[in-house]
């Protein structure tokens, strides 16, 4: 009598049946969420999966991390066959120290294959190399690009070939321990959004003056005050995100066309009084601001006096950096109430610590358009918090209360207060974002 075949468990049969019965569209959507190495493995499952993994719709977006030269060489050959379908390409390179040069050449071969295909619209190249990453003709050939992100996280990023031919490019990111733009280089003329991270250069590249359409700029640099002078030539600049450590740009008060400003003081190298006076002097001139965010240590996030005179301000965030809950007492800062003034009449969204808001209920009551309030910082405590909750329960325009506090659990008494408020005002939307970096409201102001 022939031996009986052992049947698979019902759960295994069900799992196999469910995978085999996936509609083609759903299978392709799932494979589209994988990075490229995982897609290659999935393509080995069956002919159907191979076809799905190489469907042009799936190949539109490629994300890949490479750290071995043979695999990168194989990947470059694969791109020669399929690169015409790729629209978005994200490549992260970790070259071995013994093979850095051939590794980078092979990475550039990948980009050359995509340039030859002529279909790429978004390119992100991140290199973790201890040698300079050169941006030359391989980049200038990508004429159809709309978004370009170039980063060398361990060394210099050098642009040695003109990028003036990238006329479709609207968003550009350049990041490195140093970003060098050769004197003869022209940047893409139609860029509207630029992110520049350069921790070594003494001045912004003068070629920025040629970006006549630039409207949004994010800077993480360490220039001296006069190193930002080129900003005055950007006549369309409306949004500025600035992370600084020692000085504000000397020309910042001259940028009167700004509508949105985010100041992130990293490290707190400036003396407190000097930092507050510098921010106040800037805001006295930038009276057209509709959006303002000030980040830093708790004592540096107090509202500047000039804030109250910003009569067009609609959105404001005063958010301190997150700290270790076990060291919270070291960060206690006496609350500085918000000042009354014209700004309250136009304000629609406001983020600040509970302590500041609880001492400012008079100003909050004078804000007839305030619809959204966000509790930021690291603490849900105040010696006068009852006044705040009473205001929140009665202010007619308030529609959303967002608790955006990082690093702390909410005490039972506070939960009871919040629940009571929700019952009193069921139409009020109450949300919570307990994350580790002081919440997420300030991220809405950041460069996307």
Describe the fold and architecture.
- The protein has 448 residues and is an alpha/beta fold.
- Helix content is 27%, strand content 22%.
- The chain is built from 13 helices and 16 strands.
- It has helices spanning 10-20, 24-32, 36-42, 47-53, 69-82, 100-117, 137-140, 272-285, 343-346, 354-358, 361-365, 385-392, 412-424; strands spanning 61-66, 88-93, 122-127, 133-135, 147-159, 171-181, 193-198, 216-221, 239-244, 260-265, 291-296, 315-320, 349-352, 372-375, 400-403, 429-432.
- The protein has a 16-stranded parallel beta sheet that branches.
- Strand 4, helix 7 (137-140) and strand 5 form a beta-alpha-beta unit.
- Helix 5 packs parallel to helix 6 (100-117).
- The radius of gyration is 27 Å and the shape is globular.
- It starts with 9 loop residues before the first helix and ends in a 16-residue tail after the last strand.
- Mean pLDDT is 85; it is low at 322-331.
